[in-house]
Design a protein that fits this description.
- It is built from 16 helices and six strands.
- With 427 residues, the protein is mainly alpha-helical.
- The strands form three sheets. It has a two-stranded antiparallel sheet with strand order 1-2. The chain has a two-stranded antiparallel sheet with strand order 3-4. A two-stranded antiparallel ribbon has the order 5-6.
- α5 crosses α6, α8 crosses α9 and α13 packs across α15.
- It is globular and about 90 Å long.
- The two termini are 14 Å apart.
């Protein structure tokens, strides 16, 4: 087992169409003569009966065809008017439609209140003790937000009501709400210390990072980190955690910690970030499988320690779900290393290590370990909440780049172990 880092050596239980437009009939256009034609016909008949031609009559009497010419001109005028109407009416329709469109746009598109333009730098000060409503009004007056109720709702959805911090902020008008809330939770940028908490750190390792970055003694930090019950009122997700430990909930990220901050301040900053990151986490699948948020964070911590390859996280989650469903122990070496704590000094888990008596040792316990074994990233938490649907029961590290081979049967598992031996030069 030591060669495969506990990659589950236990075997698996057995047109459209168009119609031709008919041609326009012109028969009716020649059946009935025009007024001018009727008059001309009568005039021709009169001249023929009187033995004279139209041209001769016209020359003899310049007024002889006055009425006839007037009729012809009237016909041309009517035709000209009809042509003009055929041009003007469609133009009017187009103009009316355009006017209606402009009116609709003006009356329906959201206006920027007060003429605010996005992206303009503004300085905003949030006073000590300000409520969410008061903060919303301050931001609205500075044009940082356009809708106070929408902002308040977003803060509530992110469970950040108690996490918005006072201070002076450099913001922009009409900011993205999520970005804004994250900034208010992180607190104003001040001269302080950059604290980086990488994914996969334990509480003890996080305490060491805090001491190195902020000068807060490890003992002070651990005293708070193992007093989860004192924080439950503000952070309900800590209710019932194993050993009163915040393991798994001190969210990994880089923070700016003001100089002189206390261990309590840092703890709350990390817990606030966890609340924000998981505010929209969908637990439907987990609950259907009898799991709650604590179980998901615990599973996510295993995933975090088992792979650094993002696309493998949902696959490893599927292996964990499948083995739990079928009553198989997880047999994950990382849980053994966590259980041993400072007593683990090697690079590979030995058979003797597998015998450690601990509720975290998944070679001994039948379900998930007692609690998380590190602080997982949101990617691992999402994978635990939404695993891939597979038939995998095993996975084996088969590349030096950190990729695993996933297996359904014990035979496939043995083949993958042979690849591991070959890649890593194990006899």
């Amino acid at each position: 087992m030591t060669a495969y880092r506990g990659k589950h050596s236990r075997t698996k239980p057995e047109v459209s169409s168009t119609a031709e437009k008919p041609a326009t009939s012109r028969l009716h256009m020649s059946e009935k003569p025009t007024d001018g034609q009727q008059q001309s016909g009568r005039s021709d008949r009169w001249h023929r009966s009187h033995g004279t031609s139209r041209s001769a009559a016209r020359s003899a009497s310049p007024h002889a065809f006055k009425h006839h010419d007037a009729v012809l001109e009237t016909g041309r005028a009517r035709h000209s008017k009809r042509k003009t109407l055929l041009i003007i009416i469609p133009l009017i329709i187009v103009l009316v439609a355009a006017a209606i469109g402009i009116i609709y746009a003006v009356t329906h598109l959201p206006a920027q209140e007060g003429g605010a333009q996005p992206g303009i730098a503004v300085t905003v000060t949030i006073p000590e003790g300000a409520s969410t409503n008061e903060i919303a009004n301050i931001l609205k007056n500075a044009d940082v937000i356009s809708d106070t109720q929408a902002f308040i709702k977003d803060v509530q959805n992110m469970s950040a009501e108690q996490s918005l911090k006072p201070g002076t902020y450099e913001l922009e008008t009409l900011m993205d709400t999520n970005t804004l809330i994250n900034m208010l939770v992180a607190g104003p940028v001040v001269n302080g210390n950059a604290l980086t908490v990488p994914e996969g750190l334990t509480v003890e390792q996080t305490a060491e990072a805090v001491e190195a970055a902020c000068g807060i003694p490890t003992s002070d930090f651990l005293a708070k980190a193992y007093a989860a019950s004192e924080y439950v009122a503000d952070y309900p997700f800590l209710e019932g955690v194993y050993n009163n430990s915040m393991e798994g909930f001190l969210y990994p990220k880089t923070y700016n910690i003001p100089t002189g901050s206390s261990a309590d301040y840092v703890i709350r900053v990390l817990l606030d970030q966890f609340a924000i990151e998981t505010s929209d986490l969908d637990l439907t699948y987990a609950e259907e499988h009898g799991m709650n948020l604590y179980d998901i964070v615990t599973m996510a911590s295993l995933i975090e320690r088992e792979t650094a390859v993002s696309e493998e996280r949902p696959l490893i989650a599927s292996v964990i779900y499948n083995r739990l469903r079928d009553g198989m122990r997880l047999q994950i070496d990382a849980t053994v290393i966590y259980a041993l704590g400072p007593d683990f000094t090697g690079t590979e888990v030995s058979y003797q290590d597998l015998e450690v008596d601990s509720p975290y040792n998944t070679y001994k316990v039948d379900q998930l370990p007692a609690g998380p074994i590190c602080s997982p990233s949101i990617e691992s938490i999402e994978a635990a909440a939404h695993p891939s649907e597979t038939d995998y029961y095993y996975y084996v590290l088969t590349s030096k780049e950190g990729y695993h081979t996933f297996c359904v049967t014990s035979e496939e598992f043995e083949e993958a172990k042979a690849v591991y031996n070959s890649v890593f030069g194990i006899e």
